Amino acid sequence: MSATLPKAEGLHPDSLLAHAGGGFDQATGAVVPPIQMATTFVRDEDYEPVSPGHVYSRDDNLLYQKTEGLIAALEGGSESRLFASGMAAVAAVARIVKPGGTLLVQSNIYWGTTLFLRKLCARNKVALIEADAADLQAFTEELSITKPDLVWLEVPSNPFLKVADIKSIAQQCSQAGAVLAVDATAATPLILKPLDLGADLVMHSATKALNGHSDLLGGVVTTKDAASESWTLISEERKLAGAVLGSFETWLLLRGLRTLSLRVERMNKNAMAVADFLATHPRIEAVLYPGLKSHPQHDLAKSQMQSGFGSLLSLQVKGGREAALSVAGALDLFQRATSLGGTESLVEHRFTIEGQGSGIPENLLRLSVGIEHANDLISDLDQALAAL
Ligand code: PLP
What we know:
By secondary structure, the chain is α/β, with parallel strands linked by helices. The protein has helices at residues 13-18, 62-75, 86-94, 111-124, 136-146, 166-176, 229-241, 247-257, 260-279, 298-304, 320-330, 350-354, 374-386, and strands at 79-83, 102-106, 127-131, 150-154, 179-183, 201-205, 219-223, 284-288, 312-317, 335-336, 346-348, 364-368. It has a seven-stranded mixed β-sheet with strand order 1-7-6-5-4-2-3, with helices on both faces. Helix 11 packs across helix 13 (374-386). Pyridoxal-5'-phosphate is lined by residues 85-87, 110, 112-113, 154, 158, 183, 185-186, 205, 207, 217, 219, 339.
């Protein structure tokens, strides 16, 4: 009896994803891989591992390799590494900057990243510069003056949905000898491929749309060049600092990835419909979504993003904090919870989380648009706004 695995090469990402990167389990023919729970693996009488690559589960395992291979293929990268959370992945990348070095980070990005980088850099004597990457001229000037070791972008940014010009910034980084890393969590690799635009590293919180079911924490970093110094450091960090993803979580992530393209397709469509509805609503002050023509970087977003603009958007409600909180409180279908990229739509008042001094407007609500029917999402927003 013999059967062959589907060949990954030449397959459309949708097909790769549907098969979770390829084929059945060779040992049993099972169409989904088994969950390997063992932490340690035996050696033979000559002290060679019985199965090459299987020594201790902090180092590596087949499920990591399968999931990492699939994500690397989606990103157009050469290797990926899974981490225990998005923040563990952020930390592994940030730690490539040695004491005395410089890190240039886009301002007003995911609060957890900003907070972590501020604390890490202060502790490790790394100069941290925060600058608005949507202002290309100012950002690249900053880059050429400060000559950072690492540049960190988030595209599109959370929760302001700003869009940085990755290609131009990548060119400047390569002239300045800086490593460019892009957090593309809010876009997914189906919409944005930073490595194709010249970035060295791309990172995702796999907690979000990659898994898509709000039931695991995970992170992933992918490199263009597996022989680079930065990748050696990041791989060492995963193995030696040990922020590895659990076997069950890796299995869940691989299962979630099977439906990524369907979910992204629906979420894109829903988010665009919701943004269009809100953009003309009399009680809305502003809608922040790169898919809208009114977005200041709409043309750039269109040129960088494929097949849609993602599922994250923010709105500012007329009437300030009270009005925003009362809209959030009146929503039925949108759940009041943090996070993004899940099948269920969520609403969040970011100011409550980040507080004074964070720069978040008090009337801002962030929406993560899920896979429900667009009409139900719009009706829910309509009734909540009508109750103002
Ligand atoms: N990057 C972005 C853009 C995020 O939105 C988040 C979490 O919300 C993270 C990174 C951190 O990911 P995690 O919560 O998986 O640690």
